[in-house]
Amino acid sequence: MIAGLQFDPISLPPETETLRKEVRAFIAEEQTSGTLSQRNSDDDGYCPEFSRKLGARGWLGMMWPKAYGGQERTAFDRYVVNEELLVSGAPTSAHFVADRQSGPLLLRFGTDQHKQEIVPAIARGELTFCIGMSEPHSGSDLASVQTSARKTDGGWIINGTKLWTSWAHRADYMITLVRTSPLDKDRHNGLSQFVVDMKSPGVEVRPIINLRGQHDFNEIMLTDCFVPDSMMVGGEGQGWSQVTSELGYERSGPERFLSTFALFRELVRVIGPAPTPTEAAAIGRMAVHMMTLRRMSISVAGMLQEGRAPNVEAAVVKDRGTAFEREMPELVRLLMPTEPSRDAEVDAYARALGDAMVLVPQLTIQGGTREILRVVIARGLGLR
Ligand SMILES: Cc1cc2nc3c(=O)[nH]c(=O)nc-3n(C[C@H](O)[C@H](O)[C@H](O)COP(=O)(O)OP(=O)(O)OC[C@H]3O[C@@H](n4cnc5c(N)ncnc54)[C@H](O)[C@@H]3O)c2cc1C
Question: Which of 168, 269, 297, 345 is least surrounded by CB atoms within 10 angstroms?
């Protein structure tokens, strides 16, 4: 039997509009006299000072229990804050991983110590995290990770290499997936997660420069790195089920279709108030795509709010959202030709096009490639 996808039609509750106004006012203030006014055009979107300001306003860890520094607000409130930050181009890289993934993971599987000491500091925007899942020979096939942890007195000794680890060079901690017991018939057994302090002896972070000429991801060599027992997350051998639950949070947010929004806005600006029918149709088509993706994404937020695990729907949002983002620069270039550029001195439209062209290839790879998402979707629909 073929199961169906379920995207319940959900509208954002009216009270979120008050919050939206607050976020917009804060961003406007920051753009004129705050941290945002000091950003330069080659900024990499990583600004701990701005993240701490969000933390002080209660806009990080918004859904988490108040006992652990959260605000006990809804998934819709969190959605609105993220949406406004993304469309304004605010720097979210310093807190994004911890707010979206590491905090929820620690709240779900971590010890009391993790919840009392680490989680509140994430909510204040004071601690940054990276995700150590991928390795040189383990990306899509994550269960094949070879980094291993061997038991020793009071903790574990980790050896191995992690790859493509975003912001590892600036992170305080990494949540990593490693093998804690030898391979058996089921490769998903014997994997565990640890919180690794990035200042520990035996952690070496090597930069990898991306297509944009920027340093955001890394290779990490772990050599006899000691991690205390207290830093294991969840149960020994439970890493696989924990990691797969984490991917649900990762795949469905507005960041999965708004990464190229700055280009869309520039296109609308250069076309101006009197578009030709062809221009109007193209802009309308792109807007409709974004509106539909937004409704699907909000629907997933609603299911997360109800405590459901809409992994297949989240995979659909990421697949469709990033496919749209990948197409956009080409659609825009054909509609309004210009020489794309990454030079800060050229006009804003050429710059937005240049930025988007070198950004989009990564979007359908990070967080699960298209092919892998389609496997998840096919399985979820009972087709495989
Ligand atoms: C910008 C960026 C940031 C990243 N940040 C992080 C991070 O912070 N932490 C982290 O752990 N990882 C990170 N990654 C790594 C990312 O998760 C992996 O690149 C991704 O999972 C793919 O793995 P891979 O690169 O090893 O490619 P592979 O798994 O080798 O895949 C190569 C190609 O083969 C296809 N393929 C593989 N298996 C199958 C299959 N079974 N069926 C059909 N096709 C298949 C893939 O779809 C892909 O097209 C990041 C990647 C990028 C691009």
Answer: 345
Residue with the smallest CA separation from ligand 1 atom 41 is: 372
Looking at the CA of residue 130, tell me the nearest atom of ligand 1. 8
Residue 3 domain flag: no
Which is nearest to 216 in space by CA: 42, 31, 41, 370?
42
Taking the centre of ligand 1 as the mean of its atom positions, its distance from the CA of residue 163, in whole angstroms, is: 10
Q: Which atom of ligand 1 is nearest to the CA of 134?
A: 11
> Ligand 1: does its nearest atom lie under 6 Å from the Cβ of 217?
yes
Mind listing the pLDDT tens digit of every residue in the chain (384 residues)?
557 899 999 989 999 999 999 999 999 999 999 888 877 656 689 999 999 999 999 999 999 999 999 999 999 999 999 999 999 999 999 999 999 999 999 999 999 999 999 999 999 999 999 999 999 999 999 999 999 999 999 999 999 999 999 999 999 999 999 999 998 889 999 999 999 999 999 999 999 999 888 999 999 999 999 999 999 999 999 999 999 877 766 788 999 999 999 999 999 999 999 999 999 999 999 999 999 999 999 999 999 888 888 889 999 999 999 999 999 999 999 999 999 998 877 899 999 999 999 999 999 999 899 999 999 999 999 998
Domain count, the chain: 3
CATH of the domain at 181: 2.40.110.10
Return d(Cα 161, Cα 140) in angstroms, integer: 16
Q: Which atom of ligand 1 is nearest to the CA of 375?
A: 42
Same domain, 190 and 278: no
